Structures are given as C-alpha cells and as structure tokens.
Amino acid sequence: MAILLPWTSAANARRRLLLLLLVATLFLVVAIVGRLAHTQLALHSRPAPVQIAAPGSAAEIAQLQARLGRNPDNVHTYAQLGQSLLLHVRETGDVSLYARAEQAFLQALQRDPAHVDALVGRGILALALHDFAGALEWAERAWAVNPFRAQTLGVKVDALVELGRYAEAVEALQQMVDLRPDLQSYTRVSYLRELHGETASAIEAMTQAASMGVPGSEQWLWTLTQLGHLYWNSGRLVEAETTYRQALHLRADYPYALAGLARVRAAQGDLPVAIAQMEGLVRRLPLPEFVVALGDYYAAAGQADQAQQQYELVRAMQKLNAAAGMNVDLELAAFDVEYGDDPAAALAQAQAAYTARPTIFAADTLAWAYYHVGDYAAAQTYSEEALRLGTRDALLHFHAAQIAIALGDEHAAREHAELVRAINPHFSLRHRQDH
C-alpha cells in the first residue's frame, strides 16, 4: 500500500523535537508487553487470575523484576524491563532510569545478541538520549535480524529526521507504511508532512492515526494531543481545545493535553488561568518544555522575577539531563540564544549543535544566534536554510522577518510578517514556540 506524501506546497508549523522521539518508546512497549508469564497449573485446577499492570507503570516494572528474580536468564523479560523503564521516564520525567534501561537491554543482548526487541529498544534509548547516529546503527542491526519489524523502521525514520536527512527519512517512512499502515506509521507521516508545509494533509494523517488507536490508551492520548497541537499551530484554537478535551475526557490528568489547554488559554489572553494550570502541571511533572512555557506565561504577564526563576530551573534540568547521558547541545543552544545573556557563547553553542545535527531547526537556531551578534548576512543564509522544506512555522518566519528588517529588506520583512499572521494569528508570548 502506498501513501500520499506530497511535498509541493508550503504549509505548517513544527512541534518540540523531543515529543515524537519519546513516544517511540511508548509505541514499542505497547507492542511487546502483552505477553504474560506462564503459570504452573495443577491438573484439573482452575487458572489463577493474572493481574496485568499498566505499561510503563511502577507495578509493571516490579512484576518484571520479580519475574527475573525467578528466572534471571529470561532474555525477553530483560527486553521488556528495558522498554518499561523507558516508558516510565515518559510518565515521570526521571531521566536516571535511562541507565537502568540500558543495563536491562545489555543483559538481554549478552544472552542473545540477535534479540530484536532488545536491539530496537537500544535504538529507542539512543533516540531518547539524542544519539541519533547511534539510533540509526541500532535500527540497521535490528533490521538485519528481522526485516519485517515496522518499529525498526520507525527508529530509522526518527533518527534520519533528527540528523536532517529528510529525503532518506521519507523513503524509510514509505517503506514503513507499506509494511504496516498503522498508528505508528501515520503519526510519522503527519510529522513529515508538517515539516514539508502540508498542514491540511498533516492533520488528515494524524486524524487517521488517532482512528487506529484504542480510545483511552496512551498511544491514542498522545496521538490525539498531537492533533490538537496541529490545530493550535495553525491558529484553530476551537478545534485545538476540543481535541485536547477529547483526550482529557478519558484521562483527566493527561499532562500533554493539559499543557495544550494552558497554551490555548494563554493564546486567548487568559494568562492567570494559563499560569495556574501550568503551575499545577509543573509541580507534578517538571519537564523542561512545561517549565519554559510557564516562564513565558509569567513573562507575558509582567512577572519577570518568576519567569527568570523558571528559566534558571530549565538550565539546571538540562544539566541533569546531560549528566544522565542525554545530548542536549541543540536544546541548550536554542535556549541560550533566546534567553541567555552571552550572545557570543550562544553562537558557539549553536555552531557546534548545527555541525552535529544539521536540521532545519538547528539552522534556525544558528540564524537567530548570528542575528544576536549582528552578523545579519550569515543569519539570512541559515534562515533560508531553515525554511528550505517550506515549513509553515510562525517562529521560523518571525526570525526571518527580524533578519530582513536588520538587512533593510522591507519587502521580505513584510512577506514574512504576513506569513506569521497567516500561519497562526495567535502567535505571541515572547514570539516563541516549543522546539
């Protein structure tokens, strides 16, 4: 089955880079955790009921560890444990669990170097740690073992996207869709369409992906929330709120949908409500993206001291992420270019991040860094590169407009400013969006 991947028109905005990567963890977990331990039954006895823990929950992790205590050479259980630990990071934000997940996969691969679940798990772990070249290698190893695992292609697609190798990513994704046209492949179709400026078809693909999920499941909740983000990024606040609430109807505490609702409130000008909602969310799950958003809401409300506290917290959190083995060079560069007070240092960070990971967003970060040091010609060069896919992103065009103003190009500045309003008329709040 072939799937439409049109790349002709310019349309759409991006969402933060890490969310699609982290959800790959979830997708693979759900695919493999349905296998239960065998229960020894006496003849004519009635099977005891099996308590099935939620994927990625503390209860499931405890069950898997207990199973390994009874059978310490169970390769599949080690792979399951690694997957469950990765999913638990998504639920709790506890990046220290990455080391435990790595050890679980290592134990599996020491016993069976060709265990495909463990190989794919290592690829997903590499994605989570932003080791995209490593993720690509693990995906190739897994594919060599079993060339019929769509999840392997998902890891490959994500790695290629984050390395800026978009044409190769499209080819790998087409292969994935042909092999298994499901929720996992269609969410990636949506994101690649979004990157290539196809807003309407990105929404169509994400809607189709959501229709393939089980309502109330983590996969379905995440997919529906991404659909809400697509609506928000295109300025359709009513549809965005409706979609977030649809997710929250089945799980009232789902953090990513709650963050989406707060963003809608902020865009509507109701900053006190947005701040209150995000404060509660940050207390429960202090992810960098949520903390930055709270800082932006404080800043927009004129609460500069509170905003600065959040930004300082983000720096501390990213240091912890780095200590846990995560490569956060691009994230720190983007943050310091926007919020830091040393433009020269931020430029050096952005240059290094772009060299390692030449995506359109790294190019935009580098363009904005050059703008802040006054090198407007270099800024324009990288801004044009950032827009090379035709991505309809309000932040990219806002940066391009400011650079054009600095160069005295009124015509280009006006065009980009008009595009910002056309893409998302609610774009404001420090003129930024999540990376």
In a nutshell, what does this entry contain?
By secondary structure, this protein is an all-alpha fold. The protein has helices spanning 17-32, 58-70, 75-92, 97-111, 116-128, 132-145, 150-162, 166-179, 183-195, 199-211, 218-233, 237-250, 255-267, 271-284, 288-300, 304-323, 329-339, 343-356, 360-372, 376-386, 394-406, 410-423.
Notes on the structure:
- There is one protein chain.
- By secondary structure, the chain is an all-alpha fold.
- Among the domains are: 9-34 and 55-163, Serine Threonine Protein Phosphatase 5, Tetratricopeptide repeat, CATH 1.25.40.10; 330-435, Tetratricopeptide repeat domain (Serine Threonine Protein Phosphatase 5, Tetratricopeptide repeat, Alpha Horseshoe), CATH 1.25.40.10.
- Helix content is 71%, strand content 0%.
- The protein is built from 22 helices and no strands.
- It has helices at residues 17-32, 58-70, 75-92, 97-111, 116-128, 132-145, 150-162, 166-179, 183-195, 199-211, 218-233, 237-250, 255-267, 271-284, 288-300, 304-323, 329-339, 343-356, 360-372, 376-386, 394-406, 410-423.
- The longest helix is centred in the last third of the chain and has 20 residues, at 304-323.
- It is globular, with a radius of gyration of 22 Å.
- The model is unreliable at 6-45 and 429-435 (pLDDT under 50).
Features:
mainly alpha, Serine Threonine Protein Phosphatase 5, Tetratricopeptide repeat, disordered C terminus, globular, 435 residues
